Amino acid sequence: MKPLAAKRLIGAEKEVENMAKNANVKQYSKYGQNGGNYRSMNIVEWQTFLGVIDDFKHKLIMRLLYESGCRVGELVRIQLKHLDFINSSIFFPAENTKTNQSRTSHIPVDLMNDIKTCLRQERRMAKRSGKIFREEDFLVLSNDYRTPHASENRIRQIFRKYIRLAGLDREVGHDILGRRLCKFTVHSLRHTHCMHYIHIHKLPIPIVQRQVGHKTLKATMVYCQPNDEMVRQAYGEVRVSG
Q: Which of 238, 194, 241 is nearest to 219 (CA)?
Protein backbone atom coordinates (compact mmCIF):
# COMPACT_ATOMS: atom_id res chain seq x y z
CA MET A 1 0.00 0.00 0.00
CA LYS A 2 1.31 3.46 -0.90
CA PRO A 3 2.12 5.84 2.01
CA LEU A 4 -0.63 8.29 1.02
CA ALA A 5 -3.23 5.54 0.75
CA ALA A 6 -2.19 4.11 4.12
CA LYS A 7 -2.43 7.56 5.71
CA ARG A 8 -5.94 8.02 4.34
CA LEU A 9 -6.98 4.59 5.62
CA ILE A 10 -5.70 5.37 9.13
CA GLY A 11 -7.51 8.69 9.03
CA ALA A 12 -10.75 6.98 8.01
CA GLU A 13 -10.46 4.44 10.85
CA LYS A 14 -9.94 7.23 13.39
CA GLU A 15 -12.94 9.08 12.00
CA VAL A 16 -15.14 6.00 12.47
CA GLU A 17 -13.87 5.59 16.04
CA ASN A 18 -14.65 9.24 16.80
CA MET A 19 -18.14 8.86 15.35
CA ALA A 20 -18.74 5.87 17.60
CA LYS A 21 -17.55 7.77 20.68
CA ASN A 22 -19.70 10.79 19.87
CA ALA A 23 -22.71 8.55 19.31
CA ASN A 24 -22.07 6.87 22.68
CA VAL A 25 -22.42 3.37 21.29
CA LYS A 26 -20.47 0.24 22.10
CA GLN A 27 -18.19 -1.08 19.39
CA TYR A 28 -17.73 -4.78 18.83
CA SER A 29 -14.15 -5.75 19.61
CA LYS A 30 -11.93 -6.62 16.69
CA TYR A 31 -11.03 -10.24 16.16
CA GLY A 32 -7.77 -11.09 17.87
CA GLN A 33 -5.43 -13.74 16.58
CA ASN A 34 -6.91 -16.54 18.63
CA GLY A 35 -9.87 -18.87 18.42
CA GLY A 36 -11.48 -17.40 21.54
CA ASN A 37 -12.31 -14.16 19.74
CA TYR A 38 -14.06 -15.89 16.87
CA ARG A 39 -17.81 -16.11 17.25
CA SER A 40 -18.17 -19.88 17.17
CA MET A 41 -20.79 -22.02 18.90
CA ASN A 42 -19.90 -24.66 21.42
CA ILE A 43 -21.30 -28.14 20.82
CA VAL A 44 -24.36 -27.58 23.05
CA GLU A 45 -25.22 -24.30 21.31
CA TRP A 46 -24.86 -25.96 17.90
CA GLN A 47 -27.12 -28.85 18.89
CA THR A 48 -29.66 -26.45 20.42
CA PHE A 49 -29.67 -24.34 17.27
CA LEU A 50 -30.11 -27.38 15.04
CA GLY A 51 -32.85 -28.76 17.28
CA VAL A 52 -35.21 -25.80 16.81
CA ILE A 53 -35.12 -25.94 13.00
CA ASP A 54 -38.38 -27.59 11.98
CA ASP A 55 -38.13 -26.98 8.24
CA PHE A 56 -36.37 -29.77 6.33
CA LYS A 57 -34.87 -27.50 3.67
CA HIS A 58 -33.74 -24.89 6.19
CA LYS A 59 -32.04 -27.52 8.34
CA LEU A 60 -30.31 -28.89 5.26
CA ILE A 61 -28.95 -25.42 4.42
CA MET A 62 -27.66 -24.79 7.94
CA ARG A 63 -26.05 -28.23 8.15
CA LEU A 64 -24.47 -27.72 4.75
CA LEU A 65 -22.88 -24.45 5.88
CA TYR A 66 -21.57 -26.13 9.03
CA GLU A 67 -20.38 -29.44 7.60
CA SER A 68 -18.72 -28.00 4.48
CA GLY A 69 -17.36 -24.94 6.28
CA CYS A 70 -18.17 -22.89 3.19
CA ARG A 71 -18.96 -19.19 3.06
CA VAL A 72 -22.57 -18.14 2.48
CA GLY A 73 -21.60 -16.65 -0.89
CA GLU A 74 -20.18 -20.01 -1.92
CA LEU A 75 -23.26 -21.88 -0.72
CA VAL A 76 -25.78 -19.96 -2.82
CA ARG A 77 -23.66 -20.54 -5.95
CA ILE A 78 -23.53 -24.33 -5.66
CA GLN A 79 -24.96 -25.86 -8.83
CA LEU A 80 -26.22 -29.42 -9.10
CA LYS A 81 -23.30 -30.24 -11.38
CA HIS A 82 -20.97 -29.45 -8.47
CA LEU A 83 -22.39 -32.28 -6.33
CA ASP A 84 -20.57 -35.61 -6.27
CA PHE A 85 -23.14 -38.05 -4.90
CA ILE A 86 -20.76 -41.01 -5.00
CA ASN A 87 -17.97 -39.42 -2.93
CA SER A 88 -20.32 -37.21 -0.90
CA SER A 89 -18.45 -34.04 -1.83
CA ILE A 90 -19.01 -30.59 -3.30
CA PHE A 91 -16.79 -28.84 -5.82
CA PHE A 92 -16.32 -25.09 -5.42
CA PRO A 93 -14.93 -23.58 -8.65
CA ALA A 94 -12.38 -20.79 -8.33
CA GLU A 95 -14.73 -18.11 -9.67
CA ASN A 96 -17.16 -18.81 -6.80
CA THR A 97 -14.64 -18.61 -3.93
CA LYS A 98 -13.27 -15.64 -2.03
CA THR A 99 -9.68 -16.77 -2.59
CA ASN A 100 -10.16 -17.48 -6.31
CA GLN A 101 -8.94 -21.02 -5.72
CA SER A 102 -11.03 -24.09 -6.48
CA ARG A 103 -11.50 -26.78 -3.85
CA THR A 104 -13.50 -29.88 -2.99
CA SER A 105 -15.23 -30.11 0.39
CA HIS A 106 -16.57 -33.31 1.90
CA ILE A 107 -19.84 -33.69 3.79
CA PRO A 108 -21.43 -36.58 5.74
CA VAL A 109 -23.18 -39.26 3.70
CA ASP A 110 -26.47 -38.71 5.55
CA LEU A 111 -26.39 -35.01 4.62
CA MET A 112 -25.83 -35.88 0.96
CA ASN A 113 -28.76 -38.30 1.20
CA ASP A 114 -30.90 -35.44 2.54
CA ILE A 115 -29.88 -33.37 -0.48
CA LYS A 116 -31.04 -36.19 -2.73
CA THR A 117 -34.34 -36.38 -0.86
CA CYS A 118 -34.81 -32.63 -1.25
CA LEU A 119 -34.09 -32.75 -4.98
CA ARG A 120 -36.55 -35.61 -5.44
CA GLN A 121 -39.22 -33.71 -3.53
CA GLU A 122 -38.62 -30.72 -5.79
CA ARG A 123 -38.77 -33.03 -8.83
CA ARG A 124 -35.26 -32.13 -9.90
CA MET A 125 -33.91 -35.68 -9.54
CA ALA A 126 -35.36 -38.92 -10.86
CA LYS A 127 -36.65 -41.06 -7.97
CA ARG A 128 -35.31 -44.38 -9.23
CA SER A 129 -32.28 -43.63 -11.38
CA GLY A 130 -31.08 -40.58 -9.41
CA LYS A 131 -30.55 -38.68 -12.64
CA ILE A 132 -30.36 -34.89 -12.34
CA PHE A 133 -32.70 -33.25 -14.83
CA ARG A 134 -30.94 -29.88 -15.11
CA GLU A 135 -27.35 -29.86 -13.91
CA GLU A 136 -27.00 -26.10 -14.38
CA ASP A 137 -29.68 -25.47 -11.73
CA PHE A 138 -28.56 -24.03 -8.41
CA LEU A 139 -28.98 -26.14 -5.30
CA VAL A 140 -30.75 -23.42 -3.32
CA LEU A 141 -33.31 -21.82 -5.59
CA SER A 142 -34.78 -18.35 -5.21
CA ASN A 143 -38.46 -17.58 -4.72
CA ASP A 144 -37.89 -14.57 -6.95
CA TYR A 145 -38.19 -15.51 -10.62
CA ARG A 146 -35.73 -12.74 -11.51
CA THR A 147 -32.79 -14.46 -9.80
CA PRO A 148 -31.60 -18.05 -10.39
CA HIS A 149 -30.50 -18.76 -6.82
CA ALA A 150 -31.30 -17.66 -3.27
CA SER A 151 -29.61 -14.47 -2.12
CA GLU A 152 -27.06 -14.32 0.68
CA ASN A 153 -29.44 -12.08 2.62
CA ARG A 154 -32.16 -14.72 2.42
CA ILE A 155 -29.82 -17.28 4.00
CA ARG A 156 -28.97 -14.76 6.73
CA GLN A 157 -32.67 -14.22 7.42
CA ILE A 158 -33.20 -17.97 7.83
CA PHE A 159 -30.23 -18.18 10.20
CA ARG A 160 -31.42 -15.26 12.35
CA LYS A 161 -34.91 -16.77 12.64
CA TYR A 162 -33.65 -19.95 14.26
CA ILE A 163 -30.97 -18.23 16.32
CA ARG A 164 -33.80 -16.29 18.00
CA LEU A 165 -35.88 -19.44 18.47
CA ALA A 166 -32.87 -21.17 20.06
CA GLY A 167 -32.41 -18.30 22.51
CA LEU A 168 -28.93 -17.62 21.16
CA ASP A 169 -29.67 -14.11 19.89
CA ARG A 170 -27.26 -12.47 22.31
CA GLU A 171 -26.42 -8.82 21.81
CA VAL A 172 -22.78 -7.82 22.07
CA GLY A 173 -23.12 -4.12 21.31
CA HIS A 174 -24.13 -1.72 18.57
CA ASP A 175 -22.49 -0.39 15.42
CA ILE A 176 -21.91 3.30 14.74
CA LEU A 177 -25.46 3.58 13.39
CA GLY A 178 -26.94 2.16 16.56
CA ARG A 179 -27.88 -1.21 15.06
CA ARG A 180 -27.70 -4.32 17.24
CA LEU A 181 -24.65 -6.53 16.90
CA CYS A 182 -25.34 -10.17 17.75
CA LYS A 183 -22.74 -12.69 18.84
CA PHE A 184 -23.64 -15.21 16.15
CA THR A 185 -24.00 -14.54 12.43
CA VAL A 186 -24.36 -17.02 9.60
CA HIS A 187 -20.57 -16.84 9.16
CA SER A 188 -20.29 -18.23 12.70
CA LEU A 189 -21.13 -21.65 11.24
CA ARG A 190 -17.84 -21.54 9.32
CA HIS A 191 -15.97 -20.58 12.50
CA THR A 192 -17.83 -23.33 14.36
CA HIS A 193 -16.80 -25.93 11.78
CA CYS A 194 -13.14 -25.02 12.24
CA MET A 195 -13.27 -25.02 16.03
CA HIS A 196 -15.18 -28.31 16.29
CA TYR A 197 -13.17 -30.26 13.74
CA ILE A 198 -9.85 -29.08 15.17
CA HIS A 199 -10.57 -29.28 18.90
CA ILE A 200 -13.29 -31.94 19.20
CA HIS A 201 -12.68 -34.20 16.21
CA LYS A 202 -8.89 -33.62 16.30
CA LEU A 203 -8.37 -33.27 12.55
CA PRO A 204 -4.94 -32.09 11.33
CA ILE A 205 -4.73 -28.37 10.52
CA PRO A 206 -3.85 -28.87 6.80
CA ILE A 207 -6.93 -31.10 6.36
CA VAL A 208 -9.25 -28.43 7.76
CA GLN A 209 -7.47 -25.81 5.65
CA ARG A 210 -8.25 -27.77 2.47
CA GLN A 211 -11.85 -28.34 3.52
CA VAL A 212 -12.74 -24.70 4.20
CA GLY A 213 -10.50 -23.14 1.56
CA HIS A 214 -8.17 -20.96 3.59
CA LYS A 215 -5.46 -19.53 1.37
CA THR A 216 -2.73 -20.01 3.96
CA LEU A 217 -2.13 -22.46 6.79
CA LYS A 218 -1.72 -19.49 9.12
CA ALA A 219 -5.37 -18.55 8.61
CA THR A 220 -6.45 -21.98 9.86
CA MET A 221 -3.97 -22.04 12.74
CA VAL A 222 -5.83 -19.10 14.27
CA TYR A 223 -8.41 -21.66 15.41
CA CYS A 224 -5.81 -23.71 17.30
CA GLN A 225 -6.14 -21.42 20.29
CA PRO A 226 -8.87 -22.61 22.70
CA ASN A 227 -11.73 -20.26 23.46
CA ASP A 228 -12.95 -19.32 26.94
CA GLU A 229 -15.58 -22.07 26.99
CA MET A 230 -12.98 -24.75 26.28
CA VAL A 231 -10.70 -23.48 29.04
CA ARG A 232 -13.59 -23.39 31.53
CA GLN A 233 -14.72 -26.91 30.61
CA ALA A 234 -11.20 -28.37 30.79
CA TYR A 235 -10.51 -26.95 34.24
CA GLY A 236 -13.97 -28.01 35.41
CA GLU A 237 -13.38 -31.63 34.40
CA VAL A 238 -9.97 -31.75 36.10
CA ARG A 239 -11.28 -30.28 39.34
CA VAL A 240 -14.29 -32.60 39.48
CA SER A 241 -12.16 -35.70 38.85
CA GLY A 242 -9.60 -34.55 41.40
A: 194
**pTM score, whole prediction:** 0.81
CA distances from 89 to 34, 78, 130, 215, 221 (A): 29, 12, 16, 20, 24
Q: Is 37 helix (H, G, I), strand (E, B) or coil?
A: helix
Sorted by where each begins, the domain ranges of the chain are 32-241
Could you read off the pLDDT of 3-30 as tens digits, one per residue?
554 444 445 445 434 443 443 333 333 4
CA gap 179, 34 in Å, rounded: 26
Distance CA 43, CA 33 (A): 22
Helix (H, G, I), strand (E, B) or coil at 137: coil
C-alpha to C-alpha distance for 194 and 67, rounded to whole angstroms: 10
How far apart (Å, rounded) are the C-alpha atoms in residues 234 and 162?
29
Domain 32-241: which CATH number of 1.10.10.10, 1.10.443.10, 2.60.40.10, 1.10.10.60: 1.10.443.10
151: Cα separation from own chain's centroid: 15
Alpha-carbon distance values, 210 to 89, 102, 170 (Å): 13, 10, 31
**Through-space distance between the first and last CA atoms of the chain, rounded to whole angstroms:** 55
